[in-house]
Amino acid sequence: MKLTRIPQFVAGLRGESESQPSFSAADLAVGLGTLVLLYVAARVGAESLVKFSPPDVIPTISLDPRNLPNYAARSTLRMFIALGFSTLFTFVYGYAAARSRRAEKVLVPLLDILQSVPVLGFLSVTVTLFIAMFRGSLLGLEAAAIFAIFTGQAWNMTFSFYQSLRTVPAELEEMATLYGLSKWERFTRLELPSSVIGLVWNGMMSFGGGWFFLAASESISVLNRQYTLPGLGSYVASAIAARDLHAVGWAIVTMVVLVLLIDQLFWKPLVTIADRYKLELSAGEERRFWVVDLWKAASLPALFERILGPSLHAADRLLSNFTRVTPHAERKQTSKTADMVFNVIVSGLAIGMLIAAIRFVLSSVGLKEVGHAAVLGLATGARVLALLVFSTIVWTPIGVAIGFNPRLARLSQPLVQIFASFPANFLFPFATLIFIRLGIHLNWGSMLLMALGAQWYLLFNVIGGAQAVPNDLREMATSIGLRGIRKWRFLIGPGIFGSWVTGAITASGGAWNASIVAEIVSWGNTTLKAAGLGAYIADATATGDWPRIVLGVGLMSVFVVTLNRVVWKPLYHLAQTRFQLS
Amino acid sequence: MAQSATLATLLTAEQVSKTFPLSAGGEQTVLETVSLTVAPGEVVALLGRSGSGKSTLLRILAGLIEPSTGAVTRHGIALHGPNPDVAMVFQSFALLPWLTVQENAELGLTARGVPKETAEKEAMHALQMVGLEGFEGAYPKELSGGMRQRVGFARAFVMKPDVLMMDEPFSALDVLTAENLRGEISDLWEKGSFPSKSILLVTHNIEEAILLADRIVVLGTNPGRIRGEVRVDIARPRSKSQPRFRALMDHVYTVMTNPEASVEEAPTVTVKQPKRFPMLPHARSGGISGLLEIIHDRGGREDLPQLANDLRLEIDDLLPAVDASALLGFASVAEGDVTITDIGKEFATAGVHRSHEIFKEQLLSSVPLTGTVLRVLEQKRDGRIGKEFLLDILDEHFSDEEAEKQFQTLIDWGRYAHLFEYDADEERLYLAEPEEDGAERDSPAAV
């Protein structure tokens, strides 16, 4: 007897037995876990609706470690809400860019630019907006914080989704057209599943990036005002202001626990499920994970499936009927004149906005300031370069050694992933203290701080690259006696080049972004500042100096986009054409 | 054309052409004024080499591509958009990896809003027909290639289409599985309860076409056009050993190897095709010399169908090498047989150095483009020309993809002949260094 099934895209985890539900320990675990989660979310969410009217009643942070679970829960809730919005944005934006030729021409370069605008830049613009929108309740601040986190998460996922949509195999597309799939069916049966793996991995990476800006988003120092939201980030900020080293320590412990928990309970299960959606049909070994196994062993999910099944099915059919594809009555001619008009309008708008921005900046601060900021930008760029060189020299050999040893690689991959997720700026206070005690100027110190966050991406990718070097090539090298520098020159270097480039691009982007919180650090009343564009932007944001904010953010975007085009894209192209392993 | 005759056809293409814009300006014609009808109760095969536009024609008839000129009609009504009366079986199976066999098979019915119970019943029935009972809950990655294609068939059967379209359905399977599945489809058709009214099959396998089809439409290359039709009047069930089968194989091989031969078996009116820019067959120098050595070993004259069968090669693998050998004067092809020439014999038995020389001589005399390239190289002071120079010439006659392939073949032959060398990094051709005196190396003792 066949029971009504939920459309497959929802039921990712069907239990093996569809017989009479029997309660087991697995059910207890799953049921309890879900209830606890819901309770925490509800409780914490309710606290966000507390009334407050700036600038009088600002919620205060207590440095008592017993508040940490509450703060941690609130921060986590913000992170996940931002993730939800990021996912929605990804679908809409990515879909538009992939399906409309004209939209693509605008949306993809725009995405490039958005990726390079520092998160803090968004924050300064939107915080006043959100507070005005939600007069009187904390929700305004929450919205601003969530938005800031969103801008740290969304772009990577959007790119991945857009790429997946563009690389759906042609025969599957033809099959979907010929068998009359509606737009909804096409999206849920073909396009979404084929992009799941990319989305999950990119989501994981971006999520980790979101933690980094927690402190900046929750303790918003914008336009000469200080807004503080209860959360882990603002806890650390207060601890720094109060010079409480113990509090910082507790915060780090909490952060580690949080990262591990989310990794185990959320990301690892997702990655395991996503494996199901691989496009290449190889019967490889299945990934197993204890949470997924637990879920499958419980019969509660199957019960829910049975209850919700019919209504979800009906919803699926309804949406499908709404989005039927009708054969067009006449041929759609792609009109060249319409294209040209579109191009002209878009270029006109872009140039117009650019001119307006330049005039705004020049009239308020003058050309000399622009020059000054540009020089600062060069300084930050030099730091990023030095950081990359250092990371390459130190971590590449280590990464290769790990990657060539399968057991080591398996053990270290999850560890390095967690390092990459952990927000390095939680460790900044310790570094700052050391700098102050030893009298190291932040001009040099900031490099270490930026490296703390960025170098893991390089290591992670190099390990992956070394793993991908085929065994035959390594055996061949050993048998003909290729050793030492020569081995690096002829085998290892070219072999991992592609992965190194990917890692370097990510590390570089992360370092630029990090410069805003790394070039200006404080401990108590002491503030260290480095000469760089990051410090410039941070300063301007704190004082609400609009022209300087626009100038700084604009310059940083220009720097990053230029470097991308001039350095990274050609290197990546080189890796794809010359150094492909397959 | 009488009204009743039009209504009797399921699908008609009238004067259909398809062109694509070339990046160098101008257009490349993939299909040139093709007219085709599919009537109920017949199996039609579209046979042609790669580049003959047969897959494009199939997709135009399926409504996946719009023709540049001409029209497609189904049951007399003009077709716009995907054709609801056809179902397609794809070369690479096109199964959704995250759906079970049952869900894949039901996909077309679900898309049409057929209620769940009916869809499931129909899918089960179709799966039984293709022998996949018991596999409903399996995922594609658990299945072998042959089983995956059976799911593809089941999915198409379930739709009960007017025309079942198959795009090289067996070419991604190993030979034994392909033969097995082909036989089963053939049996199903013969039984008379086939789920569709007709079949339109695209293939580059001559044997398959003769085995399955009632008529074979032969397509020419560059541009794609219909050269003619071969009626297969062998009674079913058909067997490869029947003399009529073999005769037809020979005839079709002749047609395929001689672009100017008339397709109908009526005695020869060789249709003179207008001179087109010579297109190099896509064969590597290694393939050419390998083929000649085999022919020489087997006595110097080979029946093409037999050779293809023994070497387990499809026409897209064998014919280019045969064509190249003929072009270079190493072999001659007539009536489905290939015979090695004297020069070819010398080439096949020569040592390394001498064979390069022979190849060079033949290349210069048979392919004018190489002569041009050599002259230009010799005239230039630095003795180098860029890839762009050659691509510009080729771009005017071929699509970007084809021009690149032509270029690669030219480079391969030129290198083998020690005519010129090519630096892939700088994308430049330059004159080859004169070879060391290889005379001693070629002495019989040394080989």
Description of the molecule:
The complex is a heterodimer of chains A (582) and B (447). Chain A is globular. Chain A is built from 20 helices and four strands. In chain A, helix 3 crosses helix 20, helix 5 (139-166) packs across helix 7 and helix 18 runs parallel beside helix 19 (533-543). Chain A is mostly helical. Chain B is of the alpha/beta class and 447 residues long. Chain B is built from 16 helices and 16 strands. Chain B has helices at 3-8, 54-62, 101-111, 116-129, 145-158, 175-191, 206-212, 243-257, 285-297, 304-311, 315-327, 342-349, 352-366, 368-379, 387-395, 400-416, and strands at 11-21, 27-38, 43-47, 69-74, 77-78, 86-89, 163-167, 198-203, 215-220, 225-231, 301-303, 331-334, 337-340, 384-386, 420-423, 428-431. Chain B has a six-stranded mixed β-sheet, with helices on both faces. Chain B has a four-stranded antiparallel β-sheet with strand order 2-1-4-5, covered by helices on one side. The A-B interface holds A 2, 4, 8, 169, 171-172, 174-175, 177-182, 185, 189-190, 193, 276-279, 281-283, 313, 317, 320-321, 325-331 and B 59, 62-64, 66, 80-84, 86-88, 90-92, 94-99, 103, 107-108, 110-113, 116, 120, 140-142, 148, 155, 159.
Write the SSE topology.
The complex is a heterodimer of chains A (582) and B (447).
Chain A: H1 25-47, H2 68-99, H3 101-116, H4 119-133, H5 139-166, H6 170-178, H7 183-212, H8 214-218, E1 219-222, E2 225-228, H9 232-241, H10 245-274, H11 290-297, H12 300-322, H13 336-404, H14 406-421, H15 428-438, H16 442-468, H17 471-479, H18 484-518, E3 520-523, E4 526-529, H19 533-543, H20 546-577
Antiparallel strand pairs in A: 1-2, 3-4
Chain B: H1 3-8, E1 11-21, E2 27-38, E3 43-47, H2 54-62, E4 69-74, E5 77-78, E6 86-89, H3 101-111, H4 116-129, H5 145-158, E7 163-167, H6 175-191, E8 198-203, H7 206-212, E9 215-220, E10 225-231, H8 243-257, H9 285-297, E11 301-303, H10 304-311, H11 315-327, E12 331-334, E13 337-340, H12 342-349, H13 352-366, H14 368-379, E14 384-386, H15 387-395, H16 400-416, E15 420-423, E16 428-431
Parallel strand pairs in B: 3-8, 3-9, 6-7, 7-8
Antiparallel strand pairs in B: 1-2, 1-4, 4-5, 9-10, 11-13, 12-13, 14-16, 15-16
